[in-house]
Structures are given as C-alpha cells and as structure tokens.
Amino acid sequence: MKSLNLLILTLFLSAFSLSNSQELKSPNGEITMMFSLEENGTPTYELTYKNQSVIKPSHLGLELKDDEKSLLDDFVIIDTKNSTFNDTWTPVWGEEKEIRNHYNELAISLKQNETDRVVIIHFRLFNEGLGFRYEFPSQQNLVYFTIKEERSQFAMTDDHTALWIPGDYDSQEYDYTESKLSEIRAKFDAALTDNASQTQYSKTGVQTALMMKTSNGLYINLHEAALIDYSCMNLNLDDKNMVFESHLTPDVNGDKGYMQAPCKSPWRTIMVSDDARDILASRMTLNLNEPCAIEDTSWIKPVKYIGVWWEMITGKSSWSYTNDLPAIQLGVTDYSKLKPNSTHAANNTKVKRYIDFASEHGFDGVLVEGWNEGWEDWFGKTKDYVFDFVTPYPDFDVEGIHKYAKSKGVKMIMHHETSGSTRNYERHLDKAYKFMKDNGYDAVKSGYVGDILPRGEHHYSQWIVNHYQYAIEKAAEYEVMVNAHEAVRPTGVCRTYPNLIGNESARGTEFQAFGGSKPNHVTVLPFTRLIGGPMDYTPGIFEMDISKLNPNNDSHVNSTLANQLALYVTMYSPLQMAADLPEHYEQFMDAFQFIKDVAIDWDKSIYLEAEPGDYITIARKEKGSNNWFVGNVNGNEARTSNIKLDFLEKGKKYMAIIYADAKDAHYKTNPQAYTIKTKKVTSKSKLAQLSVPGGGYAISIKELK
Predict the structure, then answer these.
(1) Which of 510, 586, 609, 611 is the catalytic position?
(2) Would you say 229 and 261 are in contact if contact means Cβ atoms under 8 Å apart?
(3) In this predicted model, what pLDDT tens digit does every residue of 476-517 receive, in sequence order?
(4) Is 290 a known active-site residue?
C-alpha cells in the first residue's frame, strides 16, 4: 500500500509539473525564462537578466482566419523536453573564423482541449538572449490554416528609450528616431519620409531589429531569425501598457500567412545585456538558422569592388541610353535607331576606365548599372515585363568588356533591377543566371525598386519573402552570389545560403545624395539592421558636396572622410564597395590607401566601445594574417575615444597607421580635414583619439618583422 501511494503521489506531482510553470536558464545562468499557462490556458512567458525583469508576463499564440478556435488559449501541457547544445561551426565568411553555438532548449507541447490541435513552442536560451518559435507538427486536426495575426507579445518593464523606424510594409530606408516608447505615437508622422509607402499601419508600429535601453542600463534588442515561408514581423506598441505585439506583413487580401503542417514559424529573438558590446558580438541570429545547405562553397568569395553607380545616384549621369521616351512607349525596340543620351554612364569607354582603376588598385570586381535595355520606362507604371536581363544597350559590349576585365584580372558584377516585378524576374532567372556565367559574372546586385507585382503585394509579405528565397536558391544552382537591394531585412539566412553575400535593406549611402542621413546613422545600423546579416552600405565617399557632381543637387554627405574609412570596419560585410568616383580617390590617395589595405574577411572581431546612436569602436583581425584593423564611428557630439591595444599578440611589435579627423574637422563644415600618422605599438599600448561630430578614425596595424 505504501508503494502504491508513493506511485500515485509521483504521478500526481508529474501531472502537476506539466500543468504549471516551466523554467529555463541560459548556459551561464544569468538569464531565466519562465513559461506558464494562465487559468484559461493562454501560453505566457517572462524573461529576467541577472534577476532584473526584462520581459514581463507576455502572451503567445496565433489568431486564425475563418476558424472557430484560434491558437490563443484553452491549452494544456502534454509534454516538455529539455536539451542542451554546445558546438562550434565554421562560417564560409564572417566576423570570426569560428562561431560557438551554445544554448539550453525547452520544447513545450501544448494541446488545445476543444480542437485536439497540438502546438509546440520551442525556447532556446543563449547567454545573450532568448529565441522562441511555434512548431505545428503533422496532425489530422490542423493541416491547412491561414494566419489572421500572430499574437506574440513582448511586455516591456518601463518606458524605455528606443531607436526605431516606422513599421512599413515596403520600405526600410529611414533614418532612426530616438525617443521614449511613450513618444513614438507623437513622433510617428515626423519619422515618415517621402520615400516611404506606409499607409495602413498603426501610428505606434515599428520595425525590427528594435534597439532599446532601459533607465537602469540594460540593452534590449527585439528581432526575428530564420524568416522562411512566412511574413516579416513588425511590432505594434500598446503605449499605455508598454506591450509590443507582433504584426505580420499582410498580402493583398490582408492575410498574414498560409500554412500547411508540418511547419514552423521564424524565431522571435530577444537579446539583453548590461554591455552594449555584447549585442554587437552576438551570433544568436545566425545560430538560430540552419547550417549551410550548399555542399561545395569554394566559389563563394568575399568581394571588394568599385562601380559605375555613384555618379548616377548623384544625378551626374543616367541609367538610360536615350531620352526618347515617346519612341520607347510607342513600341520602338531597336535602340540603335534612337539618339543616344550623352550622360549614359554604362558605356564601354567609361567602364574600361573603372576596370583599369580596379586593376591598378587591387579591387576584385566592377559593378555596372544601366547596361541593359529598359531604363527609359522602368519605374512607376507597374509594368510586368520591363527588363529581360540579357540584352545590352548598343554602347555596352558584354563580351568585349568581359574579355577586357579578364585581361586585367578583374571580375564584372551583374546588375538586375526588377522594378518590383517578381513574376517577370522569375520567368527570366534561369536565362539571366546562365547569361551571367557564360560571360564571367559570378555575382549579381538585384533590386526591387517600386511597387511589387503581383499588384497589391508588399515587399515583406509571405509570397515575396518566398520569392527572395527562390532567387537565392536558384542562384546557388548556378554558383552565383547575390546582393539583394530593397529585399526583406536579413534574419541570418546567410548562414544557410552563404551565397547571399550582402543586402541593402536599410537606408544606405545613396540617401546621402537624396538629402542626407543623420550623422549618427552609422552608429545605429550595427545595432539594428546588421543584427540579421551584413549590409552593402556602399561606403567610401570622399567628396561630400554633391553639388560638385551635379549643380542641381545640393545634398551633402553628413560624414567626415575619416568616418568613411572607419565604415569598412564598423559596418561588417564580406561585400565592400569603394563607392566614390576614381577621380575623387586620386585626389586623396594617401587616405585611399586604407580602403585598399582593409580586409573583408576576418579571424576575430573585438568590440572595444559601443553606445547605440553615439559611438562604436571595433578591432578586427584579418583572416589568415596578423594584420589588424580598427574602426571608430562617432555620432552627434565630439568625444575622445580611449582604447587599449591588448588584443595584439604579446611580445610582438607593430606599426599602426592612424587615419583620423583633424582637430578642426566637422561632418558639415570641414569634412575632408584628416590627419595620417604612424606609430609603433604593442599589446601594452593605449590610444586616446579625438572623433568629431559625424567623424571617426581608422587604423591599420601590421606586425613589424
């Protein structure tokens, strides 16, 4: 009888544990996640860091369309599984040669009483934060379903300070606004820019990655990882209760996702630390993605390039071959019969000039935009068939340029602008990629400017997210690297498909020619946009006065020249462009030397100083060498950066070349004022360096033999 009673007690305690809270701790024990079911069966979680509340009790679940019962409540726990994972993997390219993937996982299986449907919520807790996702296993009572809205909540503990951009279904190209959460509603309209297409979003909606700081010094970042076959997540804020809730990008019908079990959602991520440098150093987003799916990655190479681009962005030159738009619209297709435009940039003579410059200064490739027919009538009319991606203008000899570039040891980089017509691009993809390979192009910059076709779709809805993924996977079949502009913001998918070598997906350098960006913009992007993957930011502008290129453009690049050099270190990317014109580099060859020297693939990265929106200082060790490079970018206020060089190998001597702001430099009034000095350094050396508003410094450190 005694043993029987003990068995009954054991079973009772086991059942009790499944119906109440579950706890998960990070490997270092500093972060704790608590899961529980409310009395009505609503899944709830909360998060603490070093015993400080980070996320207050927050609901989980999904609202379904046209369904009697959404996946929001009436759940019971039917199983829990705990596991630990600790491994190291080697990225094809990256900020370090090895990445540790260490987490504790809790998988909670829930059954809904009324429907017998099963949902598994996976929680992975890393030392730097939490990831959670929904899994819908194969089951009779849940096969096809449509998501009306995901209801994942992130309940804040207070009125934090946030760096945010408006929630937009089609644009990420904003300057960031810094404000209290309670001020977002009032500041929303001011944050909108004329390039933004946001029209149907609540005035408290923001995009991820969202960077916040609490009054007691915690740094919190909200984002998502592994966005596959799902709509991109924005966040709606209940600013009375300070609760964010997921808001998925809708399709033309207003639906948020079409699912077929078995399937999974992306991961929702929460990073937290009392040191901002930990946010920059985190590889959690990559670790939440699947391992590399490409068996042979030997063809995927980091690229440093120049291109026929900036002169068109500034309005100095044009993409289109002719100004005879009426003839084009009336059906003339033989461009040789039309009068050429004298400002067309993608011509043989000019492109060869760029190839020569690239060859002379050791650049891997040259990008050419505006080489193909269709630019006269490509934008704003929702045309399905605009470009065929293989037919050049009369003044661009594809085969001849390829041979010339090859003779100079330079690779050409293709440009595919889709004008938002995803169906047209997909119908041409095989032909376009084959054309690239036949003509020696290993990389493509794709673009999605304009309204998406099919009409009514958005840049970040499920169908279009799937299009971007299709293009990446199709490119891998042809061994083509992809740099996608205007695509969905990255979520670490580049781990699985490292041929996704870069993205724009944020307000890049081009906006410096469209009126300018805030001088602290580049101190925010590594905490936001770059959390999901590298950005093709296109740095390296030396001439800040755009009117010198185009008298009709009075824009100004809000950066010092030294700041532009530092971006090659602080804005990580295996795809780095020297974006300015060759003649501007020839005016400042001593400063240009840093761009020539700086690496684009790394063994190690060390985050020396960081404060979102104010400053970032990073040191990186070049892959396969003892060379180090340091970059510092500064925000709105002048400051002195103080760093130690203790990352250098002890007992060895190095020569440091320091490219810095001059004392009288200023991003607006004196941006080209810089100094260059050399200094012998060791691991015991310290450096105090002035960074002016919108300024910074860059250091090349090489071992003395």
Answers:
(1) 510
(2) no
(3) 999 999 999 999 999 999 999 999 999 999 999 999 999 999
(4) no
